[in-house]
Amino acid sequence: MSGTENVHEVRRLAVPLPLPYAEAVAKFEEIVPVVDAPRFMELSSWAEVEALAEKEAPLGFMRYWTADISELMVGGTALWECSEYLMGNHVIAERMYRYDPSVMLHAPLRVVIRADDSGTAVFVIDQPSTLFDSYERREIAEVGRELDAKVAAVLRALGAEPPAVLVHDE
User: Fold this and answer.
1) How far apart are CA 113 and CA 68, in angstroms?
2) Where are the domains of the chain?
3) Of 21, 69, 116, 126, whose CB is crowded by the most CB atoms within 10 A?
4) How would you class 103 by CB atoms within 10 Å of its CB: exposed for 0-12, middle for 13-18, buried for 19 or more?
5) Which superfamily, per CATH, for 12-160?
């Protein structure tokens, strides 16, 4: 049995933030809270899951994983300040997963906040719509565009002007 191959273009965005690195990381971690997985798993219906996600993720996203990459690189020659995150919302992801479980390759979204040479923070993400367009299904692509808008809201909350490519029909 042979597999399938899908070649697609992804747009990587590196958005300067008007904050020093440590402040940007603290602000991001405040506005994108850690998912309370045990609490979600205690719920008995999808409606309850949706209600809790709405409450817990005011900007639409929760953090599923966090790594201080700088700490992992101790002893290496690179001196960058850098944190990596998996940010998403399993209620939103389910709206794609129902059509193709392979979307979980890109959900949650991978985000990096790094310092530039002057110590100012830079928010780096692969544009969600370019990731999810690759599944060639309208329902999945629509969620990708919705995620673009949610990323734009996170950038605004961090004090940055989102790139125009994230703003589809606002």
Assistant:
1) 10
2) 12-160
3) 21
4) buried
5) TT1751-like domain (3.30.310.70)
